[in-house]
Amino acid sequence: MDNINVSIDGIQVSIPKGSTVLDAARAAGIYIPTLCHMDGHKPLGACRVCLVEIEGGRGALQASCSFPAADGMVVRTNSRRVHNARKAVVELMLSAHRQDCNACNRTLNCELQDIAKRLGIRENRFEGEMPPRIMDTSSPSIVRDSSKCILCRRCVEVCQNVQTVGTLFAVDRGFDTVIAPTAKKELTEAVCVACGQCVLACPVGALYEKSHIDRVWEAIDDPDKHVIVQTAPAVRVAIGEEFGLPAGSRVTKKMVAGLRRIGFDKVFDTDFTADLTILEEGTEFLGRLKNNGTLPMLTSCSPGWINFIEYFYPELLPNLSTCKSPQQMFGALAKTYYAEKMGVKPEDIYSVSIMPCTAKKLEAGREEMSVVNGLHDVDAVLTTREAAQMMREAGVDFVNLPDEPFDEPLGIATGAAVIFGATGGVMEAALRTVYEVVTGETLENVNFEAVRGLEGVKEAVVKIGDIEAKVAVASGLSNARKLMDLIMEGKADYHFIEIMCCPGGCLGGGGQPIPTNDEVRKARMEAIYAEDEGLPIRKSHENPAIRTLYEEFLGEPNSHKAHQLLHTHYTPKALWPTDVPLDEVKTK
Question: Do 376 and 517 share a domain, yes or no?
Answer without folding.
Answer: yes
